[in-house]
Specification:
homodimer; Rossmann fold; 7-stranded mixed beta sheet; 4-stranded parallel beta sheet; 43% helix; 18% strand; globular
Chain lengths: 258, 258
């Protein structure tokens, strides 16, 4: 038994889609989430800047006495690729588990959707190619998806046009597996499925569940706590947090200064 | 004669639409522009956070020995409303001159378009109401406009739908004057005009030109320099900067650390 919490780091609130899945799949675990709202988005920042901010946040999570850390943010994950520990604490990123989960679907081609930073890093492509040199990888930056989700512009005509703009090639080429390489994208999963038809969508929450289980960390006690900390506060984010976590209920967000 | 430069502060590169107009209207003046790309957007940050970042940037501009400072960013302007100097240097914001320019159009109603932070501050509404209590002000947050411009998704079907979403009421109510209360919005001016028809659009660049002239600062010499500094570098921003400044030519962006 080890009732220390699991830490989750994201650039904003999108990672709550991951926290929601982990909270459901690990009902006895406590969680501390840190969303770096004051400095989001990470998707168009340089690797050096992401590293600087990321280290500050991982140190904050370490100070919360976490037993493991999950980088839910894909843009940040690209910078910490291959690093299994941060200052002695087990560290997970979303890229490597996501690549493995996509390969298990067995299709000849995999499409990766992500922010500009994630796609520019080619982190998914390189990881997939290392594991399976025969698989074709198509990478597509979808920078408008995050603002659409943040503004609640989903399940409508605008969303459909933006999805068509980015995914026309995926549909035309009948690509069978698509990695949703950004924490916001699961909110658009139904809209994407509607456009693409029959397709395997790989989402970070389920992928990280399996990965955390494989770490064999001693599990928590029955009375758990879920803390969501952010680096700035506005009504907008209070509302967005509730929407992203629904139907799971969420306590007040904690403002922290890094 | 005073060849010291004029400082311009924006959260990102949108303020280049302002720099472009000022550079054209003041052909003998030098300029130092600072875009806080590493921490954009300001549009969804709290006033406290904006103030903290803003003070750092105004201090940077002061260190460049500017003779006047212009806050091109509307979200930042709302925090510095009514402040005429920063540490002894004349300081201009876009809100008060924009409100006055809109009132001069003489329509009974004025619509203000802006980011969530600008609209939430009610800075334009309060300034207009102080100057003319009889004018009706309609405030509309248009948070998707900035990402559309940043991604070059303009003059197409997606832009048209988003404009319709935000401006349907402005059109239905035949509002005669619209303040483009964000530095990115001039890029969408033609699309907005296409949707609204005959309308007065108030843009920050022209408004600030008049305001700078009224300060009567000694003018610069004939050989001028235009420096564009940013707090982070990526290819994306190099490209966007060129697009926003076109047809004006732009030297390489300078990376600075605050």
């Amino acid at each position: 038994m080890n009732s220390r919490p699991i830490g989750i780091f994201d650039s904003g609130l999108g990672g709550l889609t991951v926290l929601k899945v982990l909270a459901k799949n690990f009902p006895n675990e406590s969680f501390v989430y840190l969303g770096d709202i004051a400095r989001l988005p990470y998707g168009n920042k340089s690797p050096e800047t992401i590293r600087k901010y990321g280290d500050q946040i991982l140190r904050f999570l370490k100070d919360q006495d976490v037993k493991a850390m999950v980088i839910a943010c894909n843009s940040a994950s690209t910078v910490y690729l291959g690093e299994k520990f941060f200052e002695g604490i087990p560290l997970l990123n979303v890229i490597e588990p996501g690549a493995r989960a996509a390969l298990e679907k067995g299709t000849s081609t995999i499409a990766v959707l992500g922010t500009s930073a994630t796609i520019r890093s080619h982190a998914y492509e390189q990881t997939i190619k290392t594991l399976s040199s025969k698989t074709t990888v198509v990478e597509i930056a979808c920078p408008l998806f995050v603002p659409l989700v943040e503004e609640g512009v989903v399940h409508n005509e605008i969303t459909d046009l933006v999805i068509k703009r980015y995914l026309e090639k995926v549909k035309a080429d009948k690509i069978g597996t698509v990695i949703l390489g950004c924490t916001h994208y699961p909110v658009l999963a139904d809209d994407i499925r509607k456009f693409l038809g029959n397709v395997n969508l790989v989402e970070s929450g389920e992928v990280l569940t399996r990965e955390l289980k494989s770490l064999n960390i001693p599990s928590g006690s029955g009375t758990r706590q879920i803390r969501v900390c952010i680096t700035d506060v506005t009504d907008h984010f209070e509302r967005l947090a509730k929407e992203l976590m629904a139907p799971e209920r969420l306590g007040p967000l904690e403002k922290i200064v890094l």
